[in-house]
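Predict both folds.
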Amino acid sequence: MISLNRRTYKEAAFDHFNFIFMLVICFVTIYPIWYVLVNSFNEGNDAMRGGIYWWPRVFSIDSYKAVFANNGIMLAMGVTVAKTLIGTVVHVLFTAMVAYAFSRKELIGRNVYMLIGTVTLFFSGGLIPYYLLIRDLGMLDSFLVYIIPAMFSFFDLIIFLSFFREIPDALEEAAKIDGANDFKIFYQIILPVSMPVVATIALFHGVYQWNDYFTGMIYINKSELQPIQTYLYRVVAQSSSNQMMAATTGSVAKTVSSQSIKLATMVVTTLPIVLVYPFLQKYFVKGFMIGSIKG
């Protein structure tokens, strides 16, 4: 009886420790986001005094007015939305098509293709050869540089492949008996039953497209083709923040600072992808478990 009580006490203490530990992890993860949000809604000049940790001391939306009044940010946001939507759809469809072909046992040279693709997961040509390739393909200062190079990912192919192998062959055999060709089978049978993995890959690639600033920084010189993350990268630089403040006129200019504009821009660029995630979470969890359970 005594040993049982000791064991129960230890388990309760362990559970209590785990609960506190998880609270600390959640706080460390969430508080930086909350800090940015709170300071972005505080009056800019007042925020420069510091001491704002939990709630805005002087509530103001002037920083957001300055952000949305800037034509450069709105244009960059449009580019980001376009490349995220188009790039995600193209990437998912193209990668899924290639993965479906790889899942066919009758594909000639499948093992060779798998070996070549696996090598690309560990080795690459480097930035300079890649830049020369993009230049020779005529995609410098082109919207296509966001789409074509990101059409395919061998890592995502492996995820698709794991899911396609679990689809019963009887579905395809029945469709072929009814006269369906490979394209019809893929679009009308394979894709509809593969929504968990499609949503998972769409979420992965959508987040990548939304957060990608490097492509716009290296391969794009035209300001009208730069995405919001590249624009944010420049806003974080002090000179760009000063330019934004100089372009802000009226009473708003008196209540914002370079720091408040930076924080407001961060919130504006992060919020859309945060709002999309809950709608894909159920597919994400299911798709993440692909291949982990057999039988």
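Second protein follows, with its predicted structure tokens after the sequence.
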Amino acid sequence: MMGPAHSLSGAAAWLGVGAATAAAGHPMPWPVLVVGALICAGAALAPDLDHKSATISRAFGPLSRGLCEVVDKISYNVYKATRSPRDARRSGGHRTLTHTWLWAVLIGAGASILAITTDRWGVLALLFVHLVLAVEGLLWRAARMSSDILVWLLGATSAWILAGVLDQPGNGSDWLFSGPGQEYLWLGLPIMLGALVHDIGDALTVSGCPILWPLPIAGKRWYPIGPPKGMRFRAGSWVELKVLMPVFMLLGGVGGASALGFL
């Protein structure tokens, strides 16, 4: 899928989690719901770090473009080193390492560790990066027409304000994990979820997605998971734009309303 659909699906997924936790008797404070949805929307772009033309490659100028080239090369080398004889030969690393469940778990765990070991500055860094990505994904038309500096300033200002809101008692810095020193440990969850939702979205497209790597399936180490061929669509097609994106918006609205107790 394309960047806007990925971000919408990420936001909808976290709002759905909010509805589920509310139904289970452990509701999210509204700042956790909002911040988590924005982080998840941004994180849903991150697996495309292996693609130099993806939305994320433009988010931070030369830095993100360079990072995408490095991740592409690393992913390609991991693919070559681990492919089975039945896996196809390929010339790049797109939809390999960063499009797996293992990557999602590791990136989420890494974010949680960063959040609890670097105190406020680590939290601000995570918020800034993912809020910029959320703007690039959810407000992509405005982001394309605006300068990068304005998008970065919006991300930095929003990160500072939202971190201050979360720090207030009862607003969610210790949501889910309330032990000493575990504030913001939950930040890794929307990041992991965003990556997984991205992979599931890509699995619906023609090429599929090797989500379950390194588990071997049908003799392939990089088996492209997906529905039957007739149910798949091309990225950017009318199915994505006219069907999936409205569905994501509807599900997100219903999930958010349920999480806040309006339904």
